[in-house]
Amino acid sequence: MPVRIQRYIAILSVVLFAAKMLAWWLTHSVTVLTDALEGIVNMVAGFLGLYSVVLAARPRDTDHPYGHGKVEFISAGIEGTLIIIAGGVIVYEGVHNLFIPHTLQHLNIGLAIVSAAGLINYLAGSYAVKQGQKLNSMVITSAGAHLLTDAYSTIAVIVGVSIILLTNNQWPWLDAVVALFFAIITIRTGYKVLRRSISGMMDEMDLGTLKKVIEVLQQHRHPEWIDLHNLRVIQYGSLMHIDAHLTLPWYHKVADADKEIHELEALMRSHLSDQVELFIHIDGCMPYQCKLCAVPDCPVRQEPLQAQLQWDINNVWTDAKHGKGS
């Protein structure tokens, strides 16, 4: 599914790039050129994204024991860099045409072509973002967000060209001003994509995902799940890795612990993603944790239950059992 979606995005980027270049060739408008340059980035990113999605889908091997999913972050990083470069080119062209304006031509035809391309970008981008979030694919989500940004930029291009058209090109400098405005938007978009890519490569904690994992665990908590700590959530492409230390009653047999782990895994798959991998370290409970333990009729309880520890983002990531000294 991700490969097919990204393939369509790549093919579409070529068609729209050709259309926008035609519009620029007809109009000689630097504002339209900004849209065309965005099309170059879309095209390169589309095929680069296609390669990364294909590579990310490969199973793990001896050289890549965690799979190939991180290539999606590299792809997104290159895409962000290309977007920033495109913004720089737009700035150069905009400043040049601000001081040396030129006559625009065939604005009616160019406006029609750009409008059609913008509508297609919006529809394709909305679909890609929705599917990318559903499939946990950063490449498809980033590609969709880029297409949407391109579509929003096109709206401003349409407004700018329309104003120039209505004023009969009496203000030739307006074309350059509109282009410089788009350059700021383009560079800002590139920075966001690049920033997210670096965050993924550095395994930066995704607070939103971590909070969601904790919320699901807390809402569906078993009495036997006495404590949870050292929780880590890492995204490798569409695969989510969850590492944690789970405290169970010390007298549980291996089969009992295995049953709890499988139920925990099923819980994560049903509420988060069907592509979840759990690395759970089992700890046996300690006497000082009796006051946190909600196991009914515990045969070895040494202290009555005071209150379960409510898991939250501030206490589950620490690498220490809870209850001691409290």
Derived structural class: mainly alpha
Number of strands: 3
The shape, in one word, is elongated
Give unreliable regions as ranges.
Answer: none
CATH hierarchy: architecture of the largest domain: Up-down Bundle
Instruction: Give the helix level as a range of percent.
Output: 55-70%
Q: Per DSSP, what share of the residues sits in E-state strands of 2 or more residues?
A: 5-15%
Query: What is the terminal separation in angstroms?
Result: 50 Å
Give the SSE order as H and E letters: HHHHHHHEEHE
CATH class of the largest domain equals Mainly Alpha
- What is the number of independent domains? 2
Query: CATH superfamily assignment of the largest domain?
Result: Cation efflux protein transmembrane domain
Fill in the keyword field for this structure.
326 residues, 61% helix, transmembrane, Alpha-Beta Plaits, single chain, 8 helices, Cation_efflux_TMD_sf, CDF_Transporter, mainly alpha, 3 strands, three-stranded mixed beta sheet, 2 domains, Alpha-lytic protease prodomain-like
Question: Concise description?
Answer:
The chain is mostly helical and 326 residues long. 61% of the residues lie in helices and 9% in strands. The chain crosses the membrane at residues 7-27, 39-59, 71-92, 104-124, 145-165, 171-191.
Overview of this protein structure:
The chain folds into 2 domains: 2-201, Up-down Bundle (Alpha-lytic protease prodomain-like); 207-292, Cation efflux protein, cytoplasmic domain (Alpha-Beta Plaits), CATH 3.30.70. It is mainly alpha-helical. It is elongated, with a radius of gyration of 27 Å. It contains 8 helices and 3 strands. It has a 3-stranded mixed sheet, covered by helices on one side. The mean pLDDT is 81.
